[in-house]
C-alpha cells in the first residue's frame, strides 16, 4: 500500500469513527432510539446506535459465570454494555458501574434507566485508581478512549477533546457489597486500578476480567509480566481471550 493510499484510508476511517461518536452523543442526548441488543444470550436496550462489544469474549465469559445474587464491579463501564448485559442475564445480580468521563457517565445512566435497572445497578461517576482523591482525566474525541493517560485518549487517530478533574476511588475504599466478578477496562490505568484493589482481591477473590491496553504512560506492556505475576502469586488461574484475560481464583 502506497503512503498516499494509506493516509487516505486512515483519513476515511477517522472520519467514520468521528461521525459515529457524534451520532452516539446526539442519540444519547436526545434519547431518540434505544435499539435492542443481544449479548451472551441476554437482551437489553441502549442508546448506543450499534451493538458494539456485544460479541466480546470477555463479556461472554462474565455472563456465563454469573450465579444468583452475585455482585459485579464494572470498572470503566463506558455506556454500559457489560453492565447492561450482566443485569439482563440474571434478575437478581447487582452491578456497581464506575465511569469517570462526565459526559459518558450520563449516557450510562440513561441506558440503565431505559432498561429499568436502577434498582440493581449503582452508577458511580468516579475513576478507579491506587488512591482515593482526584485526578486529571483526558476526554477523547472517540468517547470510549477517555483516559487518565493522555496518550491512551489520543490512540488510533483520536485526539484529546478536553481535560477535567474527576474523583477517583480505590476499590478497597468502596462502601458497597464486595465483588464476585471484577471487570477492568480503563484505557491504560489498569495497574493503578489493581493496586487500589489488593485487599478486595485477596479477601474476596473475585473472578477478574481484564482488558489490556498496549502501554501505560511509562511504556509498560500490559500483555505480559506484571499482570500474570500478580495473579499467579494469588493462586489464580489465567485464561487468554481475544480482548484480554480472565483470572479465576
TrEMBL record:
Keywords: Methyltransferase, Transferase. It comes from Halopenitus salinus. It is an enzyme of class 2 (transferase). The lineage of its organism: Archaea, Methanobacteriati, Methanobacteriota, Stenosarchaea group, Halobacteria. SUPFAM superfamilies: S-adenosyl-L-methionine-dependent methyltransferases. The keyword Transferase applies. This is FkbM family methyltransferase. The keyword Iron does not apply. Residues 74-214 form the Methyltransferase FkbM domain.
